[in-house]
Amino acid sequence: MAKQRIVAELGRPETADETAARKAAASQRYRSSKTFRNLVAAMLVCVAIVAVVYLGVPRGTPEEPAAVDVDTAAASAAEAVGHAVLVPEAPEGWRVNSARIEGGVWRVVYAPASGFVRVSQALSVEDDWAAQELGGFAPTGTITIDGIEWDEYDLAAPVDNISYAIATDAGPDTIMISGAATAEQVESVADGLGDQIQALRKDTP
């Protein structure tokens, strides 16, 4: 007759049901610990993969965007539309963000230390084009720069981030210089455009 093992906690041999229950509990504990170890291992693998990707991807300082040549862009625009366009100059240190024709408007956008200044030459538009662009605001005064009289728009509330603008006619075109900028910054771009605007006016049939 086989000798039965006495279980200390019970003070007697286990019954068949108790033995089965004990083995089932031990198996459950083993499976649980194995699942936890697998989870930890999977997490470590994921962390390792992320580290490899992060360390393996080259990083560095983004390249500066290519400089925009306003003279070249203006020549191409004038040839495309068959019409002379302004070639504005900005104070030293200002970056040119863009210079292109957009929807019948020749635009040059400058970036001073903060904000922006945009020169727009709307080709053959209605007289109220500038007011339409500025949300219907009427001029708040006039100002003369380099022999050209400009309508002045000192906006009480910014329109499309524009807080100040000046506009004048150039034959069938309307010239507007605007931006998130001070009046001095806008006017500094207008200074020197007098001869070009006069030439556009003379070329009008």
TrEMBL record:
The chain crosses the membrane at residues 39-57. InterPro entries: DUF4245 (IPR025339). Keywords: Membrane, Transmembrane, Transmembrane helix. This is DUF4245 family protein. It comes from Microbacterium dauci. The lineage of its organism: Bacteria, Bacillati, Actinomycetota, Actinomycetes, Micrococcales.
